Structures are given as C-alpha cells and as structure tokens.
Amino acid sequence: MSPAAFPASAAIAGVYEHPSRFSPNKTEFQIMAECAKGALDDAGLTRSDVDGLFGASMSMGLMGIVDLAEYLDLRPDYMDGTNIGGSSFVAHVTHAAAAIHAGLCEVALILYGSTAASNSMAIGTGGSGGSRNPDTAFSSPYGMTTVGSYAMYANLHMNTYGTTSEQLAEIAVTMRRHASLNPHAKMRSPISTEDVLGSRMISRPLHLLDCCIISDGGGAIVLTSAERARDLPKPPVRILGCGEAVQHQGVGRSDLLTIAAKQSGQNAFDMAQVQRSDIDFAMIYDSFTITVLATLENLGFCEPGEGGNFVSQGGISLDGMLPVNPDGGGLSSNHPGMRGIFLVIEAVKQLRQECGERQVSNPEIALAHGTGGTIGDKHSGATLILGVDK
Questions:
Q1: Does the residue 289 lie in any domain?
Q2: Segment 345-367, tens digit of pLDDT
Q3: What pLDDT is recorded for position 172?
Q4: Would you state the pLDDT for residue 251?
Q5: β-pair type (237-247, 281-284)
Q6: SS3 at position 110
Q7: Which residues, at least 6 apart from 179, have a Cβ–Cβ distance to it below 8 Å?
Q8: Angle at CA 358, nearest 5°, toward 353 and 360?
C-alpha cells in the first residue's frame, strides 16, 4: 500500500467513552445513544450534522446498522456495519476516512455498546455450540474455546522462544498499575507477579489474571473533514496511516506465530511514512496477556521472541520505551467483548493531553491496533497511526 492522500483529508473531531462498567438497566442501543451524544458534544456538533453511521456489536444482527439508525432517528447518506470482531472500530475509522475523502459523507459517527457483564456473557470460555463454517465444524464438537485457543498460542510461543509465565504476568501487572490512575477503570487495586501466577489456571498456561475482564460499556468516535475539524473546539487528531489484514491457518501452511498485525501494521507504517521509534505510545488489544506480546513482536517493536524481555524490563510502562494502554486496557479497565473502539478513544485523549495522572508525556504520534478473533487461528487485524499538530 503506497502513501495515500485519503487519510489526511479526514480527522477525528470528538470521542466519548461510557463511564459505566456495569449497566444492568440499559440496552446496547441506549449505551450507544448516550455515547453518540457525548462524542458529538465533544466535537461541538449535533445529531443533525451526522450523515455517516458506522457501528457493530456482538448482538447486532443482519440489519443491525439499520436498526441503530432507526433508534437514533438518523437517515445517513452512508452506513457501514462491518463486523470483524474486536478490531471492527479501528477499521471503521479507516472506512469513515475513506468515505469522507470520497465525498460520501461529511460527518461520520462510529458507535459501540455492550451489556456483556450484566448479561453474564461467557465471552472467552463459552463453547461455540457448533458452526456452519467448514473449518470450525471440525473443532467445535471437541469443545474449543477462545481462551483455549489463545493458550495454545501461548504454549507455542513458550516452546519456540522460551517465553515464561512470569513475563506474561508482567503485562497484567503493568496494565493494573496504569488502571490505578484511571478513575473509570473496573479493576484498580494493585497486583503483583505472584498474584497473577497464583490466580487460578483457566487454560494452561493462562491464569485468571492473564485474561481480560468482562464489563459493560460503549464508546463513540466522530470524524469529519480535516478542513471542518480545524474550526471545531478540540484539536483535530489526524489519521497518518492505516492498515487491515486477515490471518488464518492457510490450510496448514501458515506460520501460526505470525498474526495479522504484521501485515496491517506494515501497511500503516508505509502509509504514514514514520518509523517505530517515532511512536510515542501504543494502544494494543489485550484480550489476554499473550495478545500484547504477540502484537508487539508482529508490529515490529520487538524481534520475534524478544517481547518477553521487553515487557519484563518495563518497556510498556508509562515511563518505558513504548507506553502501552495507559488506561489499563482490557485486562483492567474495561472489556465489553469488542474493545477496539476504546483503543482509538484513549489514543485521541492522550494526543489531546486530557488524561490526568495517566497522561503520556507530550505525545505527538500514537499507534492503535485491534485484533478480532483468535491469534494462531483465523483473525482480523486493523492498525491506525494517529497524530496531532503541536
């Protein structure tokens, strides 16, 4: 993918993260509506300005984006209900920027809402209950779960590179330390490596504290033309580069340790024309601790097999070489099932220097990467590189 003009023609003008982590008396669409108002207020725009609608959730059906438009009483000129798992909303930013560049809409609203916790959804441990897909039809009857598949990836990484449970635990400890600085985070009490290793085993080698929390939640992002964004209240956050990818087992021919982030990340870096060393902080999907390690390596911040040493030496701490997930991530702040939207929201807030105690020092360029599905098996990846003018 060659450097293109289209990302530069759009900017993120507003964001909003729902503060609640448990909303038993609200529906997904109600959460989305509250987030829509919050993001539009943040952008200094109104509902009548919106002519592009993007959204996804774990329960939105075939006509979900149409149902959402009806709920919000919107009649958009452009809509996109792409659902590729947790990376969907990172991809939606790319799609919205492309739509704005093409003149298909001028103000795009991206929405997500979930009541995973209040509905007691077994996101990572529930069986699939069968599948019509030709590949999973052979694995579903044997009880494969999401956490089981990630555990198999972790075992392969350990056996290949010597990665240890202590190194994975350091990721969970760091995310909790970041979450302690986030007043909205669900889990804020400090934990130690010993706490992680002493928590019950879920699927060897992943312990309970290696797994993301389950919460309710939602968020919204507003994009508009770069020209219009300059006249709005908040500093516009520019899209420097983007990339999407799919990785799968390739009928047994794929390197299972290579994940979609390698392709989507390289595309984003090529488009942005920046180096890894230019990234001031990264927002990385952390469904499990191993997800962070694999993503760091595949994005090129570490060589394969060096991620364990990088995290154990403080590389992803707020004062480290590459601060990761200053909000506490899915391991400690929130994870309603599809966390990609929160990666972008936190990246925007950090670039606008609105994050208080957890603020990264003077950031100018950020990376956000979402993962959807299961690494080591079929999954999606979407990467954004964002920047703000100083």
A1: yes
A2: 999 999 999 999 999 999 999 99
A3: 98
A4: 66
A5: unpaired
A6: strand
A7: 185, 186, 187, 188, 327, 328, 329, 331, 332, 333
A8: 55
Predicted confidence at residue 58, as pLDDT, reads 86
**Cα distance between residue 143 and residue 130, in whole Å:** 9
User: How far apart are the C-alpha atoms of 64 and 113, rounded to whole Å?
Assistant: 12
Tell the burial category of 2 from Cβ atoms under 10 Å away from its Cβ (0-12, 13-18, 19+). Answer: exposed
Is 4 strand, coil or helix? Answer: coil
Per-residue pLDDT at 254:
79
Query: pTM to 2 decimals?
Result: 0.95
Q: 219, 263, 218: which is closest to 245 by C-alpha?
A: 263
Q: Say how far apart CA 198 and CA 79 lie, in whole Å.
A: 47
Nearest to 373 by CA among 220, 211, 149: 149
pLDDT of 106: 97
Is the bond into 134 cis (omega within 30 degrees of 0)?
no
Q: How far is residue 241's CA from residue 95's CA, in Å, rounded to a whole number? A: 12
pLDDT of residue 3: 46
Cα–Cα distance, 204 to 194 (Å, whole number): 16
Place of tokens 């990246």: 347
The list of the chain residues with pLDDT below 70 reads 1-5, 122-136, 138-140, 251
Q: How many CB atoms lie within 10 A of CB 98?
A: 18
Strand partners, 111: 55, 220
For residue 260, what are the contacts with CB-CB under 8 A and spacing of at least 6?
245, 246, 247, 298, 371, 379, 380, 381
For the chain, how many structural domains are there in total?
1
Contact by Cβ (8 Å): 346, 367: no
Answer yes or no: is 143 within a domain. Answer: no
Instruction: Provide the domain limits for residue 267.
Output: 6-120+213-388
Q: Is residue 363 part of a domain?
A: yes
Domain membership of residue 192 (yes or no) is no
351: CATH? 3.40.47.10
Q: Which positions ≥6 away from 88 have C-beta within 8 Å? A: 56, 82, 112, 338, 340, 370, 372, 382
DSSP 141: G
Q: Please calculate the CA angle 11-346-123 and round it to the nearest 5 degrees.
A: 115
- Continuous segment of H or E residues that includes residue 73: none
* Predicted pLDDT of residue 384: 98
